[in-house]
Amino acid sequence: MSEKVIWDFLLNATGNACGAAAIMGNLMAESSLKPTCATGKNKTANYVKDADNGAVDFANDGVAFGLVQWCYKTRKAGLLAYAKSTGRSVGHLQMQLEYLVKEMSESYKTAWNAVCNATDLRTASDTVMLKYEKPAGTSEAAKKKRADYAKLFYIEYGIPDPEPASEKWIRAKSQVNVRLAPTTVIPKIGELKKGDELELINSDDHWCKVAVYVMKKFVEEIG
Asked: What is the DSSP letter of 23?
């Protein structure tokens, strides 16, 4: 699955789960994690093939392309040159991930330092958006959308597998049903304060990872 491939690559490159999730959240907003995604009036029916064989003016055609949706001419030229230097298609997933890390670490160091040292998802996501992706729309809603994607990836891949649920978690003031979709669970988590007690129901499956994250981050142990 390409999603897990992207996560593993970015986690290895940054050494930081929060930073890897921040990058993935931005890539999700840009391209839905599709390395062959092409948008713009000048794209052709076989754009990747045409880019590889020189049938289109890849660097200058204004088509946003790939995981990052590279569009500015010097950035697209760099991507194409790297693809050719490694003997791979411009639409190759691994090649694009390598170039992303190369480009960010060499030319967008504020963003790179942010993801390698990230401790807060929203801050890291905003930095990637504003200092690396640089989209036209930078509204609060746009920032939140990317950060919410980052949260989903962090919950899916960045939280260690839990220990078995403990009976001492059951006494509570409120409930979080961890089988609900992440978009429902996350706002509920956000309402909690350190020291709050809560009951975790339906926590015996995948979403137990969310439950453990909640307990560790927000809730004091109940004796």
From this structure: H
DSSP 89-158: -TT-HHHHHHHHHHHHHHH-HHHHHHHHT---HHHHHHHHIIIII--S---HHHHHHHHHHHHHHIIIII
- Cα–Cα nearest to 94, from 35, 37, 11, 176: 35
Matching CATH number, 2-158, of 2.60.40.10, 3.30.1390.10, 1.10.530.10, 2.30.33.40: 1.10.530.10
CA–CA separation, 145 and 173 (whole Å) = 30
Please state, in angstroms and rounded to a whole number, the distance separating the CA atoms of residues 115 and 80: 25
Please tell me the pTM assigned to this model: 0.74
Give me the residue spans of the domains in the chain: 2-158, 167-218
Token reading at 103: 């480009």
Output the tens digit of pLDDT for each of the chain's 223 residues.
689 999 999 999 999 999 999 999 999 999 999 999 999 999 999 999 999 999 999 999 999 999 999 999 999 999 999 999 999 999 999 999 999 999 999 999 999 999 999 999 999 999 999 999 999 999 999 999 999 999 999 988 987 654 444 433 333 334 444 444 444 444 454 555 545 555 554 444 444 555 555 554 444 433 3
